[in-house]
Amino acid sequence: MSLNKTYYMCVILLLFLNLACFAEKDLTVFEVNKKLGRGINLGNSLEAPKEGQWGVTLQEEYFKLIKQAGFESVRIPIKWSAHALQQKPYTIDPNFFERIDWAIRNALSNNLYVIINMHHYDEIYDEPEKHMERFVSLWHQIAEHYKEASEAVLFELLNEPCKKLDDKIWNQLIAETLRVVRKSNSQRVVVIGPTNWNSIDKLDKLVLPDSDRNIIVSFHYYQPFNFTHQGAEWTGEQSKNWLGTKWTGTDNEKQAIEKDFDGVFEWGKEHNRPIYLGEFGAYSKADMQSRARWTAFVAREAEKKNFSWSYWEFCSGFGVYDSSEKKWREPLLKSLIAETKIDDD
Q1: In the beta sheet, which residues pair with residue 345?
Q2: Quick one: which of 60, 74, 99, 112 has the fewest CB in 10 Å?
Q3: Exposure of 25 in the CB half-sphere (CA atoms within 13 A)
């Protein structure tokens, strides 16, 4: 037996053995969504062109900290497209697979459900037809690699499809990719969101195969945008004009969020699909009181609707954890996990 084959079998065995620790078999997709519960994104790490380039390198201790704080799942954004051949057969770098295996093992060993996604495949947003074959091939490899993994490992097909990846093309790509994934992972829960950066406004354009019920539908929420993204450098010069915007929890502010979430809830009920709020957060240039107040309201509203959720993100610009000081940002953590007792030791 080759060394690579031996490694692969050991990895899968470890992933599988973790299943017996905490993940129950044969859960319905709604029960899996409930298990996701309160989650957090491990952002700015593996979705960077190279891990560490955006200031975050994942550490083993992070997974333990996340579990101890009261979170139940992690979402791991991954830029697979930066670690695979550009031409056929589009092979993913085995060393990068090893790093993802490491992250999944750490999540599972801490009794955390884990979502791995396809993040920042920027080229497919601009030239979708040119990259569809490569996209499907990447998912074929990922699905084969994790076909024996714990049921606590979920796949998310693509983060925030946008730009020229419109509704028609995205629905086509969903169907093609699901067919490939289902060949090796017939029961694996797959997370899928609409276009326009996973906007609630595009939910009614999302087409999913009615026969496939192992799908959780995701949306992202950053409204009001001029509050959550004030001073965010990547949004352009206008974000500087938003600096100082507060969220005080007025009736009008709360009702705007309630209305949006009511619409998502009704869509999920009509289509019999569980809902996952895959990202929400307010950037660090907003004042902390407003950030904590908004975050708590969004999280509680999601829970009222039986949405699982994942805060954006762990320890970077939106971060709830200060990795340099090695301590939680207490107002944010308490807004997410109200019953948490802070222990920085």
Answers
A1: none
A2: 60
A3: 6
Total residue length of the chain? 345
93 and 133 Cβ atoms separated by less than 8 Å? no
Q: Which of 23, 29, 39, 41 is nearest to 149 (CA)?
A: 23
- pLDDT for 44-63, tens place per residue? 999 999 999 999 999 999 99
Residue pointed to by tokens 């109200």: 338
- Spatial distance between the Cα atoms of 315 and 234, rounded to a whole number of angstroms: 18
Which residue bears the tokens 């295996």?
Answer: 101
223 contacts: CB under 8 Å, gap ≥ 6: 256, 257, 260
Cross-strand pairs, 219: 277
From 160, 253, 301, 313, active-site residue: 160
- Read off the pTM: 0.93
Average pLDDT over residues 12-38: 77
Q: What is the mean pLDDT of the chain?
A: 93
Of 101, 76, 94, 91, the closest CA to residue 11 belongs to 101
At 328, list the tokens: 């939680």
Segment holding 127, helix H or strand E: none
CATH homologous superfamily, domain 3-336: Glycosidases (3.20.20.80)
Catalytic residue among 47, 279, 301, 313: 279
- Active-site residue, 160 included: yes
pLDDT in tens, 184-229: 999 999 999 999 999 999 999 999 999 999 999 999 999 999 999 9
Query: Which residue bears the tokens 């037996």?
Result: 1
* Token pair 């610009």 in the structure block, residue: 317
Q: Taking the domains of the chain in order of start, what are their residue ranges?
A: 3-336
For residue 168, give the 3-state DSSP assignment.
Answer: helix
